[in-house]
Amino acid sequence: MASVTLKDVAKVAGVSYATVSRAVSGSPEISEETRRRILKICKEMGYTPNSIARSMVKRCTNILGLIVPSLNNPFMSELTADLEIYARNRGYNLMACNSSYDHDLELEVFSLLIGRQVDGVIMIPVGHEPYESLSALTKQVPTVFISENMQDYPENYVSVDNYRGMQIATEYLFSLGHRDILYFGARSDSKTHELRLDGYLSSCEKLGMTPHVLRSTYSRSSREVGYALAGEYFSRPHQETAILCSADMLAIGVKQAAYEAGIRIPKDVSLMGFDNISFSALPEIDLTTINQPTQQMATSAVDMLLDHIRDPEAERTNLILPPSLIERKSCRSVRA
Amino acid sequence: MASVTLKDVAKVAGVSYATVSRAVSGSPEISEETRRRILKICKEMGYTPNSIARSMVKRCTNILGLIVPSLNNPFMSELTADLEIYARNRGYNLMACNSSYDHDLELEVFSLLIGRQVDGVIMIPVGHEPYESLSALTKQVPTVFISENMQDYPENYVSVDNYRGMQIATEYLFSLGHRDILYFGARSDSKTHELRLDGYLSSCEKLGMTPHVLRSTYSRSSREVGYALAGEYFSRPHQETAILCSADMLAIGVKQAAYEAGIRIPKDVSLMGFDNISFSALPEIDLTTINQPTQQMATSAVDMLLDHIRDPEAERTNLILPPSLIERKSCRSVRA
DNA sequence: ACAAATAACGTAAACGTTTGCGTAAAACAA
DNA sequence: TTGTTTTACGCAAACGTTTACGTTATTTGT
Question: N or C: which end of chain A has fewer CB within 10 A?
Fold first, then answer.
């Protein structure tokens, strides 16, 4: 596994290894003739530049760290895929780490990535705890959040407009004739979910509806959480005609619980999600939801991060992308 | 962003930087007293070891490369998550790259990872092309495949027993009374899918059934592919009572097409998948399938790779894990 | 034709670690 | 005591690049 280095090539080519370096790195300080000759020798000898050594002297690794709560959630795995592909096209590799929805682990892998000398980190934060320890980390490396959780941080972030998204959802259900809408959400320690809830509440007020809110004690928006909480809900008396979930995965869990409780969707109750994961489009799920423009979020996050890396003094910019309604078959009109 | 180095710490502590190195790296050649003193100073100064520099001299990066066709497939994203978490617990970070089901890209990112000086790579190959260019790469870095595609390669691999898995599936459908089973699979240039098909064929022969095979021209086992191919199938006359798919995602696409064609599952036709992705457990999907022990595959792949890294001369070992039947509601008994 | 500018390449330092070797002091054995 | 081993540390080379600077040969300007 011993690899061939610049020196080996230089010896064969009969030049100094600085010249070889210039040949492979595309420096102008070299004649086209020798460049071609050296490049040919490189091919023959199977030379691959050692990016570790390069990182050493250039003081940048062209590696981006990614901290993501989970890859089991399709929203996040699709986002991760988009991030990786786009970053690679821009010359950066991604070092992805699962935080497993764990706050301490989140911080731990962050400093691990710093030790790895990543040029920047993209973080999808678990929630919003007192983050004094996080800001100590973000000070050490350019960071962008994909989330609205971090509004009180000086770092850039990109996100869908959660507040507006839930307004759109609420207004849509209202337009279908629903007047008793249950908001079904994850724990509120996250700004993201706070904004979604506020969007719902504001629309309720504007439209003259009484809000009904049911929230999980978990911050995790998983199918299991939705299933458990909805099972409890369905077992007790309830009069809401629609359930608005703060995440598609929650809605899918709700649907499962509804199914087992003999409640039909959308016949007995309408159901909405938020995220628009690909599975929501399945005819068996067919979930009306609010779309997050994941691809644009991914490219923008990378762009913003790279800008920040190139110019650390530049002002921070935030990007709030517009959500959109994806109308499917999980909601029915209850007009008289 | 200028970080504090060994020298900075050494200057403050009044020792040589070799001593500081020994303190932080846990060398025995140092007294407990000075170690504690230096470590305290490290904390105070916020010193983080530069792993790039360490990699430089130790000639290993503690980074593993991962090449995966797609993260949109839950089977692969769950596998990726398991790989990352387990690798990190063993002291390695993962650099994951999407090959996007593209053969050339697969090779391209492989050499990119080699340039990154990864200590090893885990690859979920797209298929099985004439891989003379791949073996040139695997010679340069320890590799393990998660797939049965690479049996003629000298590298280790870990996989579920695809052949046996499809036998189990076929026997199960037979036991329910099915005698006309359609095998619905991805393109055959992949050894994995060849083995699955062979498992089906062998069981057909053993049980005295005539095999019916329908194969996609795509190697990608996506919902879209299953949907398209099944749409075509349902639009023509057909008499099979069960459809056995080579992947859950295909089966989900088939289910969608069946739904739109007005064909009920399992009333009109039974449906089976292969993989046991988490979504198959949803009551709306409820797909009977063959389980792949992903977690064990992940840990074994990492273990095998690390063994290979520590002892490059060791003999290669392959690990074929047993599949198991997950019985759900997508198949019905057609006994008389 | 001669000075000045430029092009092409070599020299060597630097990036932040680890580690083999050397050495002085401390500990131990006799 | 003296000799030997051990402990704890410093010195300096090495890992494979990049790049500022120096130098020579060539080109350009007048």
Answer: C
CA-based end-to-end distance of chain A: 76
Cβ–Cβ under 8 Å, residues B300 and B192? no
Min Cα–Cα distance to chain A from B77, Å: 6
Q: Give the span between the Cα atoms of B304 and B155, in whole angstroms.
A: 10
* Alpha-carbon distances, residue A54 vs A64, A289, A321, B10, B286 (angstroms): 16, 47, 37, 26, 52
Please report, rounded to whole angstroms, the spatial distance between the CA atom of protein residue A5 and the C1' atom of nucleotide C4: 39
**Distance of alpha carbon A70 from alpha carbon A97, whole angstroms:** 9
The secondary structure element, H or E, covering residue B115 is: helix B103-115
The DSSP 8-state label assigned to residue A229 in this structure reads H
Backbone angles phi, psi at B154, to 5 degrees: -75, -5
CA B37 / C1′ D7 distance in Å: 18
Question: Which nucleotide is closest to the Cα of B57 by its C1'?
Answer: D15
Cβ contact (<8 Å) for A50 and B85? Answer: no
The whole-number Å distance from A286's CA to D8's C1' is 71
Q: Which nucleotide is nearest to A59 (CA to C1')?
A: C15
DSSP annotation of A227 reads H
**Tens digits of residue pLDDT in B227-263:** 999 999 999 898 899 999 999 999 999 998 998 899 9
Backbone conformation region of residue B113, classed left if phi is above 0, alpha if psi is from -120 to 50, else beta: alpha
Instruction: Output B260-267 pairs: Cβ under 8 A, ≥24 positions apart.
Output: B260/A283, B260/B231, B261/B231, B261/B234, B261/B235, B263/B234, B265/B330, B266/B329, B266/B330, B266/B331, B266/B332, B267/B332
The count of other CB atoms within 10 Å of the CB of residue B30 is 18
Choose the mutation target among A6, A24, A44, A77 for the interface with B, i.e. most B CBs under 10 Å: A77
For residue B223, the chain A residues in CB contact (below 8 A) are 278, 282
Angle at B95 between CA B313 and CA B127, to 5 degrees: 70
Residue B7 CB in 7 A reach of strand C: yes
In a structure prediction context, what are the per-residue pLDDT tens digits for chain A, which is 336 residues long?
568 999 999 999 999 989 999 999 988 889 999 999 999 999 999 999 999 999 999 999 999 999 999 999 899 999 999 999 999 999 999 999 999 989 999 999 999 999 999 999 999 998 776 668 898 899 999 999 999 888 878 889 999 999 999 999 999 999 999 999 999 998 767 888 899 999 999 999 999 999 999 988 887 888 889 999 999 999 988 889 999 999 999 999 999 899 889 999 899 999 999 999 998 998 889 999 999 999 999 999 999 999 999 998 888 889 999 999 999 999 999 876
- A206 CB contacts (<8 Å, ≥6 apart)? none
